[in-house]
Structures
1.
Amino acid sequence: MARRKMNFNANFDIVMETLNSPGLLLGSYDAAGKANIMTIGWGSIGTIWGIPVWTVLVRPSRYTYRCIEHSACFTVNVPSEDIAGYCATTCGSRSGRDVDKFAECNLTAERAPSVLAPIVAECPIVYECQVVHSSEVLPDRLADEILSGAYVDGDYHRVYWGKILGAYAEADARERIRGR
Ligand SMILES: Cc1cc2nc3c(=O)[nH]c(=O)nc-3n(C[C@H](O)[C@H](O)[C@H](O)COP(=O)(O)O)c2cc1C
């Protein structure tokens, strides 16, 4: 089914629900042009600096970190129910350093229309983003309750703010994400 451009904040409810569980797929290319995806459970969509922005958090230990540092682009892909299981398994535990997750999950990498990052063709909602700012999470400025929960091993996230250059949805996106 063909994807159509959508307003960046359309389908906000279902995208945030899916981010919470089972997660969304963050797409990027490595320096050699290999497409990679990883599961994210934290992030937000909003307006910052007067532009539509996806904010995502990536730990330096992730291969995705190296990819986004190189390309300064990423995609956010909302999985349909039939592929959502990969968020908890392959895409949320295996690294693109060791495995081609697209091949492993039988997913198709498609070059995003306007940025240097791969879209997951099977996902009914996708966003393409250009990094406009990034910053480390600073432990000495973080609430203790978060520090002790999310950062027991350090590996402080880098926060990426990506200008949303395109947001696209298939007509039956909501049904496919909910699996009905
Ligand atoms: C539900 C779920 C949510 C996750 N959310 C994040 C996240 O927001 N940021 C992050 O850095 N890692 C997150 N992870 C971990 C990465 O997806 C995982 O380490 C992945 O294997 C990294 O792949 P890569 O090395 O190819 O980048 C999450 C994992 C799961 C299962």
2.
Amino acid sequence: MIDFTLTDECGADCPKWIEKWVEWWNARVKEREPLAMMECGHGYVESLPRASRRMVRVANTTYEFREFTYNNCLSDLSKINQSKSVRQGRPMADHYLQPAKPHRPLALCERHRDTWYGGFSRETGEMKGYARLETFGETGLLNVILRHGESLGVLNGLFSYMNDNANVKLINYLRIASATETLTAFKRRVGFRPWDPVTSEFIEEVHA
Ligand SMILES: [Zn+2]
């Protein structure tokens, strides 16, 4: 399900790329901590609560979603990063408040990918929200997802776009029990459900 294996087809940066996550992933398996997971290609929008479905529809009329190259969007990235000094009740790490610096493009392979997705205003062309999806075989790990402080709803459209276009079976958004209750509630509203890293199955929840 999650593919951390190195093969002859791997690029020069694959070993480090894998190393970055394997320890985190193995710790979650060891502790059997429920992960926040969404399944792709199974009627994502229809599965959402009504309010979230509406936000996806509005987002699709307001923004255009697509992959982008990090180094080509530094100014928009900086504006998004700097638009809020506090998120989810916590101060942003200092590097987000500095201008975004160019990245060295990574030499990866088809199974191990580094993809940036953005939501661009249909009116001005400016990017208003973005996500970095780090893919290992059939599972994508969401490392960063941020929106401009004034652009409510852009992330709803971004999740929907990635669900349709990321070419993975599962998207993980770290743990279901997040640092704040607001973040946990957000993850659930946009379609992430608890998933057992030991059995690789979703955890059935009993609703009262
Ligand atoms: Zn590789």
